[in-house]
């Protein structure tokens, strides 16, 4: 039986990130750009800049996304959050920058990329009809882990409470669970 060495996995991880970074620099989605020099200095954490698309509720607004990559990338999704002073007011974006988007958790696939995540977020913002926070924003921000990947998102249509967890709505479609303390 052959085992893959950690060195091989580390080099595969670095090659994949370098390839995606070059792709994002050379062919960014509309309104998206990354500072390649700072990303090259730290391949495991990128700051991606995003502009609100023309003709949308976010036209003219500037946002920053932070991408953090574990050594298991691309088999493990990146941790993606909005950061900075302008976090979009959106039914799928909490005021702490956490994003309720299935491809960032259970629908992640190694076939996806930073570009596809950026396109999904641009699309999510562009299709917004009303600027508002998720209904459970205040509770979520006060009680959940700083790492959105430690949140378990559920897809149901109502509130559920049990003895170990509180489940609450994320934009009428998604639920999130945090351990009760």
From TrEMBL:
One GO BP annotation of this record: protein ubiquitination
* Catalyzed reactions: S-ubiquitinyl-[E1 ubiquitin-activating enzyme]-L-cysteine + [acceptor protein]-N-terminal-amino acid = [E1 ubiquitin-activating enzyme]-L-cysteine + N-terminal-ubiquitinyl-[acceptor protein]; S-ubiquitinyl-[E1 ubiquitin-activating enzyme]-L-cysteine + [E2 ubiquitin-conjugating enzyme]-L-cysteine = [E1 ubiquitin-activating enzyme]-L-cysteine + S-ubiquitinyl-[E2 ubiquitin-conjugating enzyme]-L-cysteine
Q: Does the keyword Transferase apply?
A: yes
Give the keywords, sorted: Transferase, Ubl conjugation pathway
The terms under GO molecular function for this entry are: ubiquitin conjugating enzyme activity
InterPro entries per the UniProt record, alphabetical: Ub_conjugating_enzyme, UBC, UBQ-conjugating_enzyme/RWD
Q: Which Pfam families match?
A: UQ_con (PF00179)
What EC number(s) does the entry state? 2.3.2.23, 2.3.2.25
Q: Which SUPFAM superfamilies match?
A: UBC-like
Name this polypeptide is given: N-terminal E2 ubiquitin-conjugating enzyme
- Give the species: Harpegnathos saltator (Jerdon's jumping ant)
């Amino acid at each position: 039986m052959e085992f893959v060495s950690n060195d091989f996995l580390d080099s595969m991880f670095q090659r994949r990130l370098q390839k995606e970074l070059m792709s994002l620099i050379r062919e960014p989605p509309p309104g998206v750009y990354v500072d390649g020099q700072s990303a090259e200095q730290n391949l495991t954490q990128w700051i991606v800049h995003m502009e609100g698309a023309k003709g949308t509720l976010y036209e003219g607004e500037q946002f920053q996304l932070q991408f953090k990559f574990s050594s298991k990338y691309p088999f493990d999704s990146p941790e993606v959050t909005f950061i900075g002073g302008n976090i979009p007011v959106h039914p799928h974006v909490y005021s702490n920058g956490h994003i309720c988007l299935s491809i960032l958790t259970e629908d992640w696939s190694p076939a996806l990329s930073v570009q596809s995540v950026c396109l999904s977020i641009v699309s999510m913002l562009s299709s917004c009809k009303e600027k508002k926070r998720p209904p459970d924003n205040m509770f979520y921000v006060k009680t959940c882990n700083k790492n959105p990947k430690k949140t378990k998102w559920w897809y149901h249509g109502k509130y559920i409470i049990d003895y170990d967890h509180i489940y609450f709505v994320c934009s009428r479609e998604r639920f999130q669970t945090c351990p009760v303390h």
